[in-house]
Amino acid sequence: MNNNNFEIINTPIQINEVINKVEDRNAGAINTFIGTVRELTKGKKTVYLKYDAYISMAEKKLAQIGGEIQKEYPESKVAITHRIGELAISDIAVVIAVSTPHRADAFAASRYAIERIKEIVPIWKKEHWEDGEKWMGDQLEHKPYPEGKPEKGDLN
Amino acid sequence: MSIRILLFAELEEKVGTRQIEIDGTEMTAGEVRNTLLEKYPEVSAFNSAMMAINEEYADDQDVVREGDLVAFIPPVSGG
């Protein structure tokens, strides 16, 4: 898969550019996931967010996720762009596009990609509230890591 | 004779820089971690961070050699 399909950028994400990367004559579906900046988390009001990344490794890990999806769905195409820097409420933080011949696979693969990003891609979010700020840690709700890090099998 | 180390997020902020170097030609990732815990005893986040060697996740027993790029990866929060 083309490596340009997996990007970390510090400018607003153009959704259509991500979608265009996965267009395919054999696709019957293109599913997109758009992750946006939420104002309220557990009642606490976010003013803005700052994302940072280990860019070179993050792009490799995004490409790894694309490879995992292609292994499961050989006819799929995947593109993922994540934005870093300062983001305001409702700004787009991540866009995932997956095309497959049939829609069920495109839905499943998009879901897989966003969950996997939260497991293995070195990107960090700093919440800025009215009364403080904090680098956020692991936010996976369904899979806490007992040792504070992914299991070996989750990484490779 | 040094090993380059990258720090991110909370670790970068607490140590005050993104890149540091430590003396050494060959040691395990765990030894790198312990060296930094000794050097920055107030930064407990070194304990909970994952490590990467040359952009791949590593275990504490993996070996780091001179010229390798080590990174401490605090729990990630992308998406």
Task: Write up this protein.
The complex is a heterodimer of chains A (156) and B (79). Chain A is an alpha+beta fold and 156 residues long. Chain A has one domain (3-140): Aldehyde Oxidoreductase, domain 3. In chain A, 30% of the residues lie in helices and 35% in strands. Chain A has helices at residues 15-21, 55-72, 103-120, 152-155; strands at 6-9, 29-36, 40-41, 44-53, 77-83, 85-88, 92-100, 123-129, 132-135. With 79 residues, chain B is of the alpha+beta class. Chain B has a single domain, classed as Ubiquitin-like (UB roll), CATH 3.10.20. Chain B contains three helices and seven strands; from the N terminus they run E-H-E-E-H-H-E-E-E-E. Chain B is globular and about 35 Å long. The model of chain B has no long low-confidence stretch (mean pLDDT 96). The chains are: A alpha+beta (156), B alpha+beta (79).
